[in-house]
Amino acid sequence: MDNTFSRLPVAMLIASTTLIVSQAWGSGYQIREQSARALGNAWAGAAAAAEDAGFMTYNPAAIGQLDGTQAMAGLAYLDATFKLHDGRAAAVTPMGAVSYGSSASGEGGESAWVPSLAAKTRLGDALDLGLAIHAPYGLSTEYDADWIGRYHAIETELEVLELQPTLNYRATDRLNLAVGLRAQYADATLSNAVDLGALGAGAGQLPPSAIGNADGKAEVTGDDWGYGYTLGVLFQATERTRLGLGYRSKIDLTLEGEVDFSADNAVGQQVLAGAQAGGQLRDGGGKADLTIPANLNLGVYHQLSDRLALMANAEWTEWSHFDELVVEFDDGTESRTTENWDNTWAISVGASYAVNRQWLLRAGLGVDETPVPSAEFRTPRVPDADRRWAALGATWMPNAHLGVTAGYLRVFGDDVEIDQDATPTNENARRGSLSGDYEVAADVFALSVDYRF
User: Which domain of life is it from (predicted)?
Assistant: First the structure.
């Protein structure tokens, strides 16, 4: 028995906090549901449409396109499905590999509500001030406590709140330039099972039959504040065509976590007590420096006719900084996990059609790459996959001041493999191997109300 095992859950806290948000239906750990208007077009107009104050989260210069004082409140409901089929798992022990089961499945999808608020006002002839409060990242997932991959993950919950004060300068009648601050708070709770039966069998305390049959549990928490900035340009190229560019900087976090070990069965409690007496599996903590990546939104919006508008958007995210995770522990040691994520593009096209002065219909299609390069880097906390979007929406404007928008987005994820291999010396030594095929999909519903004073 080595000290690596006692530190493993803390490493999982730090690693999973960066990873788990991938199922927020943006690549990596992005949530894009800051505007129902943008969602109804599959975010095709995110950088250039500038239809309500919520668009400042995609391009801060969007507020320069909006007259006077405006406010927006939105709520999105995400219903995610990611299910493991034909799962196979095994423990690595001194006696060799011992199967945890095969042909098993596991459902980890959860639902979540994502709120957003935004407002802007004009400070004078050339300046606009805005504030957005939103959740750019987050996930809530939970597998059954006895599922086949329980030593990799059971519960994962991440909540992120971001405040974005924004200042826009109307350089000319056609050009808006903006800058904003991003102040972000992240809080995470994660849990996984610990195979105390395997630990006891490896130490000669228990028979091999105890492997997989005397579980404990590790629960970890962590939080931190991080800060970055956002820049934006919005250019009215012609009377009918608008170009937009929005940039969000990276944000550095140092997540500090606490780990708590427990067991609810007599055999597990005995093994846990012995391990803690020997200096193992003790409640403690760790920390890691993490980089939330920079990203860039490029968009075009074209009013083809009085009724029909066409739009497109391309979003690049710099995930390649996440090549490894280095976790520092309270005792001065460290752990490294290889990730090897790739940079990604998300591309979408959309259209809006004005039926009359009160009703605007929306539609959009998009594709979104996963940063996870292969099955060996895919985890049950992050069964991330390439995905496609199909969106519909409608905006009702009963008068010149009020707009109500509803949108629906269906996410079609590719079926993907997971292949977490375990050897006596790699990072899965105590979690075991896990392989199978993941089914990934989601439904997203969004509603927003915007008001012009």
Answer: Bacteria
199: tokens are 């630990």
Cα three-residue angle 313-370-218, rounded to 5 degrees: 130
What's the average model confidence in pLDDT over 179-193?
Answer: 90
What letter does residue 415 receive in the DSSP assignment? P
Name the amino acid, one letter, at 151: Y
CA 31 to chain centre: 6
Number of H helices, E strands in the chain: 4, 21
CA distance 152 to 288: 19
Mean pLDDT in the chain?
A: 87
User: What's the rounded mean pLDDT across residues 306-315?
Assistant: 97
State the average pLDDT over residues 307-329.
86
Q: Cite the DSSP H helix spans in 117-233.
A: 196-202
Mean pLDDT over residues 185-195, rounded? 87
Per-residue pLDDT, 75:
95
Residue 31, both tokens: 């949530």
Query: How far is the C-alpha of 383 from the C-alpha of 385, rounded, in Å?
Result: 7
The DSSP code for 208 is G
Q: Determine the Cα–Cα distance for residues 67 and 73; give it in Å rounded to an integer.
A: 18
User: Which tokens is 404 given?
Assistant: 């109500």
- Residue-wise pLDDT tens digits, 4-47: 333 333 333 333 333 333 344 566 567 888 899 999 999 998 99
Q: Which has the minimum average pLDDT: 29-38, 58-67, 136-145? A: 136-145
pLDDT digits (tens, 9 = 90+) for 221-249: 888 999 999 999 999 999 999 999 999 99
d(CA 303, CA 10): 52
Start-end of H helices in 80-175: none
Question: Which amino acid type is present at position 45?
Answer: G
Q: Please, are residues 320 and 48 in contact by the beta-carbon 8 Å criterion?
A: no
Integer Cα distance of 276 and 265 in angstroms = 16
> Which position has the token pair 């710099």?
318
Instruction: Write down how long the chain is.
Output: 453
Class of the CATH domain delimited by 3-452: mainly beta
Give the residue from 47, 132, 34 showing the smallest Cα distance to 407: 34
Predicted confidence at residue 29, as pLDDT, reads 66
Q: In what helix (H) or strand (E) does residue 118 lie, and over which residues does it extend?
A: strand 111-122
The residue ranges of every structural domain in the chain are 3-452
The token pair at 362 is 């929306």
pTM: 0.86
